[in-house]
Structure formats: structure tokens, C-alpha cells
Design a protein that fits this description.
With 486 residues, this protein is mostly beta strands. Helices cover 11% and strands 41% of the residues. It has six helices and 38 strands. Strands 1, 5, 6, 8, 13, 14, 15 and 19 form an eight-stranded antiparallel β-sheet that branches. Strands 20, 24, 25, 27, 32, 33, 34 and 38 form an eight-stranded antiparallel β-sheet that branches. The protein has a six-stranded antiparallel β-sheet with strand order 7-16-9-10-11-12.
Length: 486
């Protein structure tokens, strides 16, 4: 408001009137049919005894989400990134929409949430009939099985062809946008979109919609420890362009972007110079923490450790000196086939066959049974993936070293490997198979002990226990390009 008053005094308002008025920022209520819309940062709340008794509807329809029982009310709080959320305790907290609209013409739901604790088939939200489980006639958005690190849209199970779409749970704040039509469903999130067909049968009018849990035989159950930032519902299937608008709004409104965490349970490790925790002695890195639950940290107990630093462009990096600095990943490691490895790095000074990252057996050289990603000869100006060197058909792949920060991604499985960067890819075959390494070395090579140290800055490392599709690999490239200005 102050800016507008200043603009009026300076005569800027008159110039604005001569042209078209500025379009207001997009909001969900600009699309027709919004039945309810709750936003933890904008919706008025009725709070009693520290709990949220009513989350008020921003759609203008008065479809407030309520809870009359004091002990079963979520709380208003702020998450670790400063987002305002409603926090459901996973024990009995729920909010209910008791007069939902007819969904006979289909439904579109959007929700921004984070699962704080995974328990099988606990619900984020659900729509249900007065009798029977929510998913039988309507739907639930819920955790999948305990070990899946996934959630699922599950519905219309009374039909021969029900609706089930399963997506990875990043364990971070994320959004879900889904539609259910008479004979199909579509799900969108930061990993893209999936569809599923169902028996041609409309949904009808639910008896209740529940937030923070599920609904069975007229009562909430299966409560989730979930934070909800925002949720809305349209009693129709939005068009593709409308869904695009909702997605763009949610990403911008809540600062949501894809990261490797959205790969899900197959993410074997993920270290990020911006987002990971560190254990430091001065500026030297004792441990670079894995962001996954696997806790496969990069660590070094000896004096030769990289520095936690910034490069000339202000990027957070781990700086290896090329003399003896190294970090090591040990403990319970995954088999490296099928597998995808990714590193974001910059070689500061090239030397012959110096290692950026290498996987090694208990004894012997890294590239005999496993692989080393390294400088090729200093004069070649190339990076090289070398592996299975004792095989008649060994693995040799090269890509140009741009001299700048760059990404390298390689996959290995069933005797075939591919190495790619942001400019292209090459492929090769190899004999034998990659098993489980004794350790992985960052900043050097390995032959019974680290050697062949590289003068390199490292920004991130990622390991995935499956072969990502070309589109998923491109998502990884796009993420790295945006995050580190490659």
C-alpha cells in the first residue's frame, strides 16, 4: 500500500491508466468452480486452546474445515524453512469438510504437504461415503507401504478397474495435483505426471472430506503426522492449461522445485554443498552428510581433508587440493549395477589420470572390478570413465572437460554403460558385472589406499539404485544447471 501511495504522489498512477491494467497474480479462485481453498498463510483461523477449531475457506463458499473435539485439532506452526503450516499429530488430529460438493462431474484437488513420519496407508486427505472405507466409492491420498517411501492416490476400489497411482515421497515439502474423471485419473507433482484408467463410474457426493487422515464407516481413522500448507478442490476436471496454472502457482507460492530427493526410495545417496550438513574442523571437512536416510556420509579422519569453500562465482563447493585431500564412503554400500552415479564438479587443474570419484574393491585397483571417473591424460582435455579393466571388453567412455563447472552422469547395467553431461552422451559395453564396492573415494583414486588425487571442486554427488529414464536424467541435468549455474 505504501508503494501505491508513493506512486500516486509521483504521478506514476496516471501512466499506468494509459495502458492496460497489470494482471493480478494468479490465485486458485481465478479458475471457475473452486469449492474450497485453505491456505495456512492466508486463511483466517478459529483457534481454541492452542488448536485449530476452524480453517476458513478462501473460496467464498463458506466450506470451512472444522474440528469440534479439542484434543483432535491440528496446530498452527512454522516449518524449518519458515512456511506456515497446519501440523497434524498422526494420533487423532483431523479437520472435516462436512458439506462437500457433488463430484459427479469429476474432481481436481491440489495440496502442498510434508509427511513427517511414514506409517503404511495413513492418509493426507480423503473423500468418503457415509459407510465403507474412503477408497471404495471415492478416494484417498495416503502413504503407500512402509518401506516404499511413496504415497498413492487410491480410489474407486468397488469397481473392477480401480484407480491407483503411486509416486515417490521426497520426505520434503511437495505438492500433489490430481484429477478423477468418470473413467480415468491424472496425477501431477514435481516428478511429472501419470495417468490411470478406471471403470466408467462417477463419484457422486461424499459424506465428508477429511484432512490429516482417512475416513471409514462415518468416522476418521488412519491419521498422519503431516504438515499441510495449502489445499483446494474443484468439483470438475480442470483442463491441461488450468492444471499448468495450478502447478506454476504452487511452485512459485511455496518455493518448490525438483531435487534428487524426489527420486524416492532408490536414492542411494545425495550430498549437496548447499543443503547438506557438515562436520568441520575450521574450514576442513570431517564429514559431508548424506541427505537420505541411508546415512552414507563422505568422511575422512586423517588430516588430508578438503575445504568447505566458495569458488570465484560464489558457489558452495568442497575444494580438494590435488595433493592428498580425499573423502571416503564406507560401511554398507549398494551394489553398483543397475546403478546411476552423478557428480557436479569442476577440475581446477588437470593432471594425468587423476580421480574425481572412484569405486574400489577390498584389494586391487579401482578400475579392475569397478570404475574410476577421472581426468584422461592432461593434454587430452577429456574426462574418462574407466572400468572392468581386466575384462576383454573393458569400459572406456570419454567426454570433453569444459574447464567450467559441469555435470557427469553415468549408468551401468546388464553389460551396457552410458556417460553423459549437459552437452551430450556416449555409450559402451563391458564384460562382467559391477558388484558391491568396499568403499568409494571422492577426490582421488584407490589401489589399496587412495592415490591419484585431483585438484577439483565438488558441488554434489548423487547415487541411484536403478537406471533413470532419459527424461529423468534430463531432470537431473536441469536441476544441476539451475542450482549451480552450469
Amino acid at each position: 500500500m505504501t508503494a501505491l501511495r508513493l506512486g500516486a504522489r509521483l504521478g506514476l498512477g496516471r501512466g499506468r491508466r494509459r495502458g492496460s491494467p497489470a494482471a493480478p497474480p494468479f490465485a486458485p479462485n481465478q479458475l471457475a468452480g473452486l469449492a474450497f481453498w485453505y491456505d495456512a498463510a492466508q486463511s483466517p483461523l478459529v483457534e481454541t486452546g492452542g488448536g485449530v477449531e476452524q480453517w476458513q475457506d478462501l473460496s467464498g463458499n463458506g466450506n470451512h474445515a472444522t474440528q469440534s473435539t479439542g484434543a483432535q485439532r491440528p496446530t498452527k506452526t512454522v516449518d524449518s524453512l519458515g512456511r506456515r503450516v497446519l501440523r497434524f499429530d498422526g494420533t487423532d488430529d483431523v479437520l472435516l469438510v462436512t458439506s462437500p460438493p457433488s463430484l459427479a462431474e469429476g474432481v481436481t484437488v491440489f495440496v502442498v504437504f510434508r509427511m513427517r513420519n511414514r506409517v503404511a496407508f495413513r492418509g493426507v486427505l480423503a473423500a468418503a461415503a457415509a459407510s465403507g472405507p474412503d477408497h471404495e466409492q471415492f478416494f484417498t491420498l495416503q502413504n503407500s507401504a512402509d518401506l516404499s517411501q511413496a504415497f498413492q492416490l487410491h480410489g474407486k476400489t468397488a469397481e473392477i478397474d480401480n484407480l491407483t497411482i503411486t509416486r515417490p515421497d521426497s520426505t520434503e515439502t511437495q505438492y500433489a495435483v490430481f484429477t478423477i474423471d468418470t473413467d480415468s485419473g491424472e496425477f501431477r507433482d514435481l516428478n511429472g505426471q501419470l495417468t490411470d484408467t478406471t471403470t466408467a463410474e462417477g463419484l457422486g457426493t461424499p459424506a465428508a472430506i477429511v484432512l490429516g487422515g482417512r475416513y471409514n464407516n462415518g468416522a476418521p481413522f488412519s491419521f498422519s503426522a503431516v504438515d499441510i500448507c495449502e489445499v483446494g478442490l474443484y468439483p470438475r476436471v480442470l483442463s491441461s492449461s488450468e492444471l499448468d496454472q495450478i502447478e506454476a502457482y504452487l511452485k512459485s507460492r511455496h518455493g518448490l522445485a525438483w531435487s534428487p530427493m524426489h527420486i524416492g526410495r532408490d536414492l542411494a545417496w545425495y550430498h549437496d554443498a548447499i543443503a547438506s550438513d557438515f562436520t568441520l574442523t575450521g574450514s576442513q571437512v570431517d564429514r559431508w552428510d548424506d541427505r537420505t536416510a541411508a546415512a552414507r556420509h563422505w568422511a575422512q579422519t586423517a588430516d588430508a581433508r578438503p575445504e568447505n569453500a566458495q569458488d570465484a562465482q560464489g558457489r558452495a563447493v568442497l575444494r580438494f587440493d590435488g595433493i592428498d585431500d580425499v573423502l571416503r564412503m564406507t560401511g554398507t554400500l549398494p551394489a553398483l549395477e543397475p546403478f546411476l552415479t552423478c557428480i557436479i564438479y569442476r577440475v581446477r587443474n588437470r593432471g594425468d589420470f587423476e580421480g574425481v570419484i572412484s569405486a574400489a574393491p577390498l584389494s586391487g585397483a579401482d578400475d579392475t572390478d569397478f570404475w574410476s571417473f577421472q581426468n584422461a591424460s592432461a593434454a587430452s582435455g577429456e574426462m574418462q570413465l574407466s572400468g572392468r579393466s581386466l575384462e576383454e571388453d573393458d569400459l572406456q567412455l570419454t567426454r570433453p572437460d569444459t574447464g567450467a563447472a559441469q555435470i557427469a552422469i553415468w549408468t551401468a547395467g546388464m553389460g551396457s554403460a552410458e556417460l553423459r553431461d549437459q552437452n551430450g552422451s556416449v555409450a559402451d559395453t563391458y564384460g562382467g558385472a559391477f558388484g558391491t564396492p568396499a568403499e568409494i573415494v571422492l577426490g582421488g583414486r584407490y589401489d589399496g589406499a587412495p592415490f591419484g588425487f585431483a585438484e577439483v571442486d565438488v558441488m554434489a554427488t548423487v547415487g541411484v539404485s536403478r537406471l533413470l529414464s532419459a527424461s529423468d536424467q534430463q531432470r537431473l541435468v536441469d536441476w544441476a544447471t539451475a542450482r549451480w549455474s552450469l
